[in-house]
Amino acid sequence: MGRRNCTWDGRAGLALVAGLLGLVAVLGLAGPVRAEGSEPGKPRPRTTYQDVVREFASVSCPGKTLEACTTSASEALREFIREKVEQGWTKERIVRTVVADYGERVLAVTPRRGFAWWLWILPVAGLMVGTALLALAVRRKAGRGGDGSEDSREVGSEGEMGVSAELEPYVAEVERAAAEDG
Fold it and tell me: Which domain holds residue 73?
C-alpha cells in the first residue's frame, strides 16, 4: 500500500503562528476591568500588612523577598509599610509610594506594561514559534521518504503506485526490454 503525498506550503503554519501570537497579545493586554473590591456601593476590603509586603523584593538582599531579608534597610521598609497600613493607606497607594522612591526593581513581580511587558510575552511567543517550526519540520519530513528524498510516486485509483513524469521514459524502456526478452 502506498503513501499519499502530503504537501504543505507553509501558509497554514504562518496563519497558525499569527493566530497564536494574536491570542497571546489579546490575553496579555486584557486585564480586569475593575479591581477586586472596587464595585460601587461595596466597602473596600481592609489592606493588610501581609498583602502589601508580598508585593516587594528586597532592595539590599538580591533574590530575596522583602520578608526574608534581615538587613536594617529592609526592616525600615517593612516598618514604613506597617505604619502606612495602620494609617489606612490602600495597597495601591503604598506600592506607588515605594516604587516612586526605589523604582520598579523593588517589585517582586515585573509589571506587565512598557518594556517589562516583553519579559512576559517573549518566552511564551518563543515557545509558540518553536512549536510551530517543529510542527513544520515534522510535517515536511512526513512528506518525504525515510532518507529525506521526495517520494515522487503517486497512488493510483486502484491502490497501485504510479510513476512520475520524470521516470516514465525509463520505465517504458525497461518494460519494452522485458517484453522483448519475455
Answer: 43-109
Burial category of 56 from C-beta neighbours within 10 Å (exposed 0-12, middle 13-18, buried 19 and up): buried
Half-sphere exposure of 3 (CA within 13 A, CB side): 11
pLDDT tens for 50-109 read 889 898 988 888 888 888 999 999 999 999 999 999 999 999 999 999 999 988 888 888
Q: Is 22 a domain residue?
A: yes
- pTM across the whole model: 0.42
Identify whether 179 is part of a domain: no
49 class by beta-carbon count within 10 Å (0-12 exposed, 13-18 middle, 19+ buried): middle
**More confident: 2 or 80:** 80
CATH of the domain at 78: 1.10.8.640
Cα separation, 5 vs 49, in Å, equals 65
